[in-house]
Write a structure and sequence with these properties.
The protein is an alpha+beta fold. Helix content is 49%, strand content 10%. It has helices spanning 7-59, 111-129, 152-165, 172-181, 193-202, 220-225, 230-242, 264-275, and strands at 73-78, 81-84, 101-106, 134-139, 250-253, 256-257. It has a 6-stranded mixed sheet with strand order 2-1-4-3-5-6, covered by helices on one side. A hairpin with a 2-residue loop joins β5 (250-253) and β6 (256-257). The chain crosses the membrane at residues 35-56.
């Protein structure tokens, strides 16, 4: 007959079992802590990666449409037509020697810009055609807050970039004049995308033509609907403001602000006088 364990043996067995349970619990807690530490470390690494990506995204240059330099696009005489140039001082094509550069900062929501284009747009275009000047346009977005939340200033500037990036820069000036002649009231909702595309087609733009900057197949129409160059418009507008831009329209001849563009005779005389300097 088996001998019954004594009280001492039972107490010893109980202590051993308790020890084993405690060790198992300690191992379990240690494992849980290790898993927790690893999890915390992974989360910390993930946070750093996300922060790094956000910083990179916020600091990297926005995609620049082809034909644009520092937020602007420049036209010069080229044969019987006009062409783009990145630097009219170095690549004036068929413009006359010492042809001054006229630069116009404009916002397609700006009523004064529409007045400027109505008065001087065609005259400036003729000076380019004759080789008398190089003409630079820099669309900016200063009046997004005046279009009922639709960002019309940005969207219209983006439209022009889509057109140029698709290789249809020869339609820029006609479309620009059309946008101003169809300018919506300040404080309204601005033209919708379809209306802008209709105006582009009326100006001879092929809205189904692919743009060059996007990695995927993106047409001018897609570019407009997606506001493809929104970041670039925002970035170039900030750079213009940081460079001293106070408002639109601002007109410069060889980098110097023109005072009064409303007097056509004195305005064009000032431009042509700059050619002689």
């Amino acid at each position: 007959m088996a001998k019954k364990p004594s009280n001492t043996d039972r107490r010893a067995a109980a202590r051993e079992k308790a020890r084993q349970i405690a060790e198992a619990q300690a191992r379990k807690q240690k494992t849980a802590k290790r898993v927790l530490y690893i999890g915390v470390a992974l989360v910390a690494v993930l946070v750093l990666v996300v922060v790094g990506v956000l910083i990179y995204q916020s600091t990297k240059p926005a995609a620049q449409p082809q034909g644009y330099t520092e937020g602007s696009v420049t036209f010069v005489k080229d044969g019987d037509g006009v062409a783009l140039t990145e630097d009219p001082a170095k690549d004036s094509k068929d413009a006359k020697d010492n042809a001054p550069n006229v630069k116009v900062f404009l916002d397609y929501q700006c009523p004064a810009c529409a007045q400027f284009e109505g008065l001087n747009g065609k005259g400036l275009g003729k000076l380019v055609d004759d080789g008398d000047i190089s003409l630079t346009f820099q669309p900016v977005a200063l009046l997004d807050g005046q279009s009922g939340g639709t960002k019309y200033s940005t969207r219209s500037a983006n439209l022009m970039m889509c057109v140029v990036d698709s290789g249809q820069a020869d339609k820029f000036q006609e479309l620009s004049l059309s946008l101003f002649s169809n300018q919506p009231e300040e404080g309204g909702t601005g033209l919708d995308d379809q209306k802008m595309l209709d105006l582009a087609k009326e100006a001879g733009v092929d809205v189904d033509k692919k743009i060059n900057t996007a990695e995927d197949d993106v047409t001018v129409k897609d570019c407009v609907n997606n506001i493809q160059f929104e970041d670039f418009v925002t970035q170039s507008t900030k750079e213009a403001l940081n460079g001293g831009l106070k408002g639109t329209p601002t007109v410069q001849v060889n980098g110097e602000n023109v005072g009064d563009w409303s007097d056509q005779q004195s305005f064009f005389a000032e431009i042509l006088q700059a050619q002689k300097k």
